[in-house]
Automatic annotation (TrEMBL):
This is Amino acid ABC transporter permease. It comes from Massilia aerilata. Its main location: membrane. The keyword Transmembrane helix applies. Belongs to the binding-protein-dependent transport system permease family. HisMQ subfamily.
Length: 219
């Protein structure tokens, strides 16, 4: 068996488009996941039992239910109640909901790692709870949670391959079409494997570099 990439040359643009779609969906999902994960983490560490319970239910649902079930529910189930989303919108929403659940764990760990003396000093200074959360708790927690959040983003990239199940031609969806057209699944998926490896490596490298830069004065 020979490894021949020449027949795949005409499809290079399709693979690149799929990779761009994957990157865009995951970038939007990271932003959405943080928008959900930050308040969920704060609620899980709040003194109010109801707030903690609501956040825990959200996290448990989206962390413990298979992602493809969540995806199918949003794509096929929501239209039954009049909520119609595009495949791309559904994919971003599903990744955001799942990413929010996992990112809340990372941020919550960062919050719990804050020295009690820091919070006591902030309370003594007369700052409100909102000001303490915004100016002290979240900056420290997010800085310490950068590496775990990088892992969450890597997981979003890997999980995004399932979006092809709802007809979204991201990287894996494009690869399926190209493999069917060229009858060269080995070469096609070898390239896709490499592209996913590069994407996740870049994310891990960037997260590590940002973590070192922001924590340089501490360490």
């Amino acid at each position: 068996m020979s490894f021949d990439l020449a027949p795949l040359a005409p499809y290079a643009g399709d693979l690149a488009a799929g990779a761009r779609l994957t990157a865009l969906a995951c970038a939007l999902a990271l932003a959405g996941g943080l928008a959900l994960g930050v308040p969920a983490a704060l609620m899980r560490t709040a003194a109010l039992p109801l707030a903690r319970r609501v956040a825990e239910v959200y996290v448990d649902i989206f962390r413990n239910v298979p992602f493809i079930v969540q995806l199918f529910f949003l794509f096929y189930g929501l239209p039954e109640i009049g909520v119609q989303l595009s495949a791309f919108g559904t994919g971003v929403l599903a990744l955001s909901l799942a990413g929010g659940a996992f990112s809340s764990d990372a941020i919550r760990s960062g919050i719990l790692a804050i020295e009690p003396g820091v919070l006591e000093a902030a309370q003594v200074s007369g700052l409100s709870r909102f000001a303490i959360a915004r100016r002290i708790v979240l900056p420290i927690a997010l800085r310490s949670a950068l590496r775990p959040l990088g892992s969450v983003f890597v997981n979003l990239i890997l999980t995004s391959s399932i979006l092809s199940a709802i007809t979204l031609n991201e990287l894996t969806g494009s690869a399926k079409i190209i493999a069917a057209d060229t009858f060269q699944p080995f070469e096609v998926y070898a390239l896709v494997l490499l592209l996913y490896a590069v994407l996740t490596w870049l994310v891990s490298l960037s997260a590590g570099a940002l973590h070192r830069r922001l924590n340089r004065r501490i360490y």
